[in-house]
Amino acid sequence: MSRAPLTVVALGGNALLRRGQPLTADNQAQAARHAAHLLAEVSGEHRLVVTHGNGPQVGLLALLSENYTDVEPYPLDVLDAESEGQIGYVLEVELDNAIHDQHTVAIITRTLVDADDPAFQNPSKPIGPVYDEETAKALAAARGWTVKPDGEHFRRVVASPDPKRIVELPAIRHLVDAGFLVVCAGGGGVPVVDDGNGGQRGVEAVIDKDLASALLAADLGADHLVLATDVDSVRQDFGTPAERRIAEATPAGLRSLELAAGSMGPKAEACARFVEATGGTAAIGSLEQLPEILAGRAGTLVRRDGADLTYHDAMEAVA
To answer: Residues 6 or more apart from 107 whose CB is under 8 A from it?
Structure first.
């Protein structure tokens, strides 16, 4: 097991809870069980570290907090921690049930960010459920939210500062080295900043889990980073007649594309950062195809060298 490649798999919030699906505990548990069985298929050949998104869940917690008016709504960093514990617990149970030769440990993880990050002035991270445009704008006016398009719908968006350091990295590394399957950096980790006195304080934000996962993977010296989501690959000219599925890319190739800032854009940047930092391989693709992605047969594979962009249709034509 110690000689197996170390692979960080980031489970998207919408892969764990399907887009538009009711935000129920049963739905989340069923999705986590399905994800655990897919992870179990590759656990014999990879040492796994699992991260996860929290956008739908933290948004729901924020709604619940705002609607209980006897106390002030809880700040986003506390809700981040709540969602990280909630999802981490569910994944911990399902992974232990599915993988019998390893114990799973879920860690509430803090991620250091810069208090002066310009992201605090330009919210971009979608959280919570989807709305139609009219409902979203009415909620924005009533609650002081910022809302932006998310595919065909609208969602609340919040600040998403760039992750600088995974605070619990030494503990995560020790657990991985000891043979545990670690679930960590959920929702990108709880955002904290230096308080100027040698300590830390939480801030109102939700860190992008893909960028945090790339930082974690690089600092752990991982061999592979997989961003498992609810789409099968990165797409050039998405939603147009010229749309094409990208099979392989370099960091420069990914950065040449125009990708949505709140969804695929951070995934592409996360893969580029990891590959540039480590020389390892990264991939973006559907959670349903995780074994095929790790075998190089599905998704979008990101390498340091090679053609900037290669397309699935071209490869299929050759085959």
So the answer is: 88, 168, 171, 172, 175, 182, 183, 184
Q: How far is CA 138 from CA 141, 147, 163, 233, 269, in A?
A: 5, 10, 32, 34, 33
164 is known as an active-site residue = no
Task: Tell me: pLDDT of 99 over 60.
Answer: yes
Q: pTM for the whole thing?
A: 0.90
**What is the Cα–Cα distance from 268 to 283, expressed in whole angstroms?**
9
**Residues paired with 10 in a beta bridge:** 51, 227
Strand pairing report for 300-302 and 125-131: unpaired
Which residue among the candidates 53, 88, 125, 253 is catalytic per the annotation? Answer: 125
Q: How far is residue 228's CA from residue 210's CA, in Å, rounded to a whole number?
A: 10
Which residues is 38 bridged to in the sheet? none
Choosing from 12, 14, 253, 285, which is the catalytic residue?
A: 14
Q: Are 225 and 214 in contact (CB under 8 A)?
A: yes
- 137 is annotated as an active-site residue: no
First to last CA, the chain: 34
- Mapped onto helix, strand or coil, the DSSP state of residue 246 is strand
Q: Are 92 and 104 in contact (CB under 8 A)?
A: yes
Q: Is 14 a catalytic residue?
A: yes
For Cα atoms 30, 282, 245, give the angle at the middle one, nearest 5 degrees.
80
pLDDT score, position 77: 94
Specify whether 209 is catalytic: yes
Residues with Cβ within 8 Å of 275's Cβ and at least 6 positions away in sequence, in order, are: 250, 251, 281, 282, 302, 303, 304
Which residue of the set 55, 188, 265, 267 is catalytic?
A: 267
pLDDT in tens, 29-63: 999 999 999 999 999 999 999 999 988 888 888 88
Residue of 12, 54, 187, 209 with catalytic role: 209
